[in-house]
Design brief:
Blueprint lengths: L1 E8 L6 H11 L5 H13 L15 H6 L6 E6 L3 E7 L7 H8 L4 E7 L6 H12 L4 E7 L8 H15 L8 E6 L23 H7 L2 H4 L6 E8 L11 E5 L5 E2 L3 E5 L3 E10 L2 E3 L1 E2 L4 E6 L10 E4 L5 E12 L10 E6 L2 E15 L4 E3 L10 E14 L10 E6 L5 E7 L1
Parallel strand pairs: 1-3, 1-4, 4-5, 5-6
Antiparallel strand pairs: 2-3, 7-8, 7-15, 8-14, 9-13, 10-11, 10-15, 11-12, 11-14, 16-20, 16-22, 17-18, 17-21, 18-19, 18-20, 21-22
Protein name: sulfate adenylyltransferase
Keywords: ATP-binding, GTP-binding, Nucleotide-binding, Nucleotidyltransferase, Transferase
Organism: Zobellia barbeyronii
């Protein structure tokens, strides 16, 4: 069954948690005890409706304040797909959480309050989805019940958002507009007769109809080696396989490949998944590969097709989302974790800070504070094999680790 990960984004009180709770309720994905707790808490607060945000706001502080302050991952399934929804905070100071939630998603929901329309935070949410190359974005214009399901209001917000779309640098995104009421359940899972002027799908119908090829950024195949398998048993005395996950494309038996960093060539002899052999390993499949030649390969090496080489350099420039309270400054050293590899890196140059509301860049920068996004060049102590993020989401991204605390302090997208 296909698994679709969806990132959510919206300003405070736009109704993200309520929307997700409504999806869980209408798809009958809430357990009876969870539903009972929601009913009890809603009644104790004097509500004449069910507060579905309680289904996702798991922290005590979140429930007390009525806002989302941490990324929550919600899982549910339908007959067609399995879903993972990343419920992310809407506050400006939680930009890093939005980046974290969206970094591994294939689709996104941007919520807009029908009473407020497109605001500055909407720019930020769209910028992050654009930066992370999310291919399918639904703009859910929520709280339509509070504007009497006005088609005029819906069209005005849609027009404002389309002006924002003109500023993006990633043109392969598909943008879909859907009028919804998360509280009432209109056009979320089930169609409503309150918006006869809207003839498109409901929110869930849209995601149910998504085809894998329309949402995944297909690139060149990359096979980072996670583990070298040497059973040393009687039956597999000479077996030497390389276990890992295929990213970006497919690898097949007979493909001529290059092992990096040694750049030694060979051909794929066999592809295993557990005890079964396959002719082709599809993208995102975890397999074990054997080669026709004896090549010295270890964890962190990469197999690629001979005519589809990545860049091999000791320096790169990337867009950084900074996530730490301590500043990133020129000359500081961090560990770059790029896939399996960990490499020591020094900040060579902070070119400019990017304003995620599409208001331009700031070149007068002496360092990066928490939630800043900037263009930064790093020098490494040894080469890595990478692609540009726009060409390969997996092989073009990395995280930064503080050498003193071992904390993840930043996420990067190679440009």
């Amino acid at each position: 069954m296909d698994v679709l990960k969806i990132a959510t984004a919206g300003s405070v009180d736009d109704g993200k948690s309520t929307l997700i709770g409504r999806i869980l309720y209408d798809t009958k994905s809430l357990t009876s005890d969870k539903l009972e707790a929601i009913e009890k808490t809603s009644k104790s607060k004097g509500y004449d409706y069910l507060d579905f945000s309680l289904a996702t706001d798991g922290l005590v502080a979140e429930r007390e304040q009525g806002i989302t302050i941490d990324v929550a991952h919600i899982y549910f399934s339908t007959a067609k797909k399995s879903y993972i929804i990343a419920d992310t905070p809407g506050h400006v100071e939680y930009t890093r959480n939005m980046v974290t939630g969206a970094s591994t998603s294939q689709a996104a929901i941007i919520l807009i309050d029908a009473r407020k329309g497109v605001i500055e935070q909407t720019n930020r949410h769209f910028f992050i989805n654009n930066l992370l190359r999310i291919k399918d974005v639904v703009v859910a214009i929520n709280k339509m019940d509070l504007v009497d399901y006005s088609e005029e209001t819906y069209n005005a917000i849609k027009a404002d958002f389309q002006e924002l779309m003109a500023k993006r640098d990633y043109q392969d995104q598909k943008i879909t507009f859907i009028p919804v009421s998360a509280l009432k359940g209109d056009n979320v899972v089930n169609k409503t007769d309150k918006t006869p002027w809207y003839t498109g799908p409901t929110l869930l119908e849209h995601f149910e109809a998504l085809d894998r090829k329309d949402i995944f950024n297909v690139g060149t195949p990359r096979f980072p080696v996670q583990y070298v398998i040497r059973p040393k048993t009687e039956d597999f005395h000479d077996f030497r396989g390389f276990a890992g996950k295929v990213y970006g494309g497919e690898l097949s038996v007979g493909d001529e490949v290059v092992a990096l960093p040694s750049q030694t060539k060979s051909k794929i002899k066999e592809i295993y998944f557990h005890d079964k052999k396959y002719q082709t390993a599809s993208r995102r499949s975890s397999v074990t590969i054997t080669l026709e030649d004896e090549i010295n390969i270890s964890r962190g090496d990469m197999l690629v097709k001979v005519d589809e080489m990545p860049t091999i350099e000791k320096q790169f420039t990337a867009t950084i989302s900074w996530m730490d309270s301590n500043k990133l400054t020129t000359g500081k050293k961090y560990v770059v974790q790029h896939g399996v590899n960990k490499v020591l890196a020094k900040v060579d140059n902070i070119h400019h800070k990017i304003n995620p509301d599409y208001s331009g860049i700031d070149t007068d920068v002496d360092g990066l504070g928490m939630n800043d996004i900037a263009q930064v060049t790093f020098k490494l102590n040894k080469p890595i094999f990478y692609d540009k993020f726009k060409d390969h989401r997996t092989n073009g991204s990395f995280i930064l680790i503080d050498t003193q605390t071992n904390s993840t302090v930043g996420a990067g997208f190679i440009s």
